[in-house]
Write a structure and sequence with these properties.
This protein is mainly α and 261 residues long. It has one domain. Helices cover 67% and strands 0% of the residues. It is built from nine helices and no strands. It has helices at residues 2-16, 27-52, 67-75, 77-98, 100-124, 140-147, 158-173, 194-216, 229-260. Helix 4 (77-98) runs antiparallel to helix 5. The longest helix has 32 residues, at 229-260. It is globular, with a radius of gyration of 20 Å. The mean pLDDT is 79. Keywords: Membrane, Transmembrane, Transmembrane helix.
C-alpha cells in the first residue's frame, strides 16, 4: 500500500504541476516514482514468498474480523450514498463561491476519494459468493490469458501500467523536447483533461490494490479471504470503460505532440 501511495502521489503532483514546471521536472519526481514501483514489487515478492512457504495470515487466532462492520455498511449503502451525495453537492457549491479553480481541485479530490472509498467498502465486504470450478471458463487458452489479468494474484493491473505510462510520458516530454497539451486550460476538446483523468485512474489503482490485499493479507483487522470472481469481473468492466477512454485520449494528445515536433 505504501508503494501505491508513493506512486499515485508522485503522478498526481506531476500532472497538477505540469504547466508550472520549467524547463524540466526535478529528479525527485523520478526518485519517488521508482521508489513506489520498487515498494510494490518488494511487497508482492514477500507475499509470494510467504505463500510458497505455506505462511498465511488467515489462522492467527484473533477473534474479531472488522469485515463485519463493512458488511453492515454495505447493507446501508443506498442511504449512506444519498447522504454523501448531499455533502458532495454542498462542498462543490461552497468551493464554487470561493473560486472556480478551487472547485475544480475539490472535484478532482472528491473523485479520487469517492472511488477509493467505494472500492474499499466493496472489496472489504463479504459477498458470500460460491467459488466457481472454472473461474476463467473451460478453454485452456482463455484461462491462461485471463490468469495474467487476475488482480487477486498480483497487483499489476491495467490501471497500474497506464498510470505509469502517462506519468513517464509527461516527465519525458521536456527532456525530449515535445510539448503535451493536457487540455487543462478549461476548454478541453474531450470534456475532460489529463490531470482530472489521473485522479480517476489513481482511484482504480487503489481499487485493484484493495482486491489484492484483501485476498492475501490482514489489513487493519480485515482478515484475508478469497475475493469472489464477481469482484474481479466488476474491476475489469470498470477498467475497460474508464481506462479505455483515458488511454485513447492520451494517445491522441501524445501523437499530436509528436507530430507538431
Amino acid at each position: 500500500m505504501a508503494g501505491m501511495i508513493c506512486l499515485t502521489a508522485d503522478g498526481l503532483w506531476v500532472a497538477d504541476h505540469y504547466d508550472w514546471i520549467r524547463p524540466a521536472f526535478p529528479k525527485q519526481t523520478w526518485n519517488f516514482l521508482a521508489i513506489g514501483v520498487l515498494l510494490v514489487l518488494i511487497a508482492h515478492f514477500i507475499i509470494r514468498l510467504h505463500e510458497t512457504n505455506g505462511v498465511r495470515a488467515e489462522n492467527h487466532g484473533l477473534k474479531t474480523d472488522n469485515r463485519q462492520y463493512f458488511n453492515k455498511l454495505w447493507e446501508k449503502r443506498e442511504r449512506v450514498g444519498n447522504q454523501l451525495c448531499v455533502i458532495v453537492l454542498i462542498l462543490l457549491g461552497c468551493s464554487f463561491l470561493v473560486d472556480i479553480l478551487f472547485m475544480v481541485f475539490i472535484a478532482k479530490l472528491l473523485v479520487l476519494l469517492g472511488i477509493v472509498g467505494i472500492a474499499f467498502v466493496y472489496m472489504a465486504h463479504d459477498d458470500h459468493m460460491p467459488e466457481h470450478e472454472y473461474p476463467y471458463g473451460k478453454s485452456t487458452r482463455i484461462r491462461r490469458i485471463l490468469k495474467w489479468l487476475d488482480y487477486r494474484k498480483h497487483p499489476f493491473s491495467i490501471s497500474f501500467f497506464l498510470y505509469l505510462f502517462i506519468v513517464i510520458a509527461i516527465l519525458l516530454q521536456k527532456p525530449l523536447d515535445y510539448e503535451l497539451d493536457l487540455q487543462s486550460n478549461g476548454s478541453s476538446r474531450y470534456a475532460t483533461d489529463v490531470p482530472f483523468d489521473m485522479y480517476a485512474l489513481a482511484g482504480f489503482l487503489f481499487a485493484c490494490t484493495f482486491l489484492y490485499i484483501f485476498h492475501h493479507c490482514d489489513f487493519f483487522g480485515i482478515r484475508p479471504k478469497k475475493q469472489s470472481d464477481d469482484k474481479l469481473l466488476f474491476i475489469h468492466f470498470a477498467e475497460m470503460m474508464i481506462c479505455g477512454i483515458i488511454f485513447f485520449i492520451f494517445i491522441f494528445l501524445l501523437f499530436e505532440a509528436l507530430l507538431q515536433e
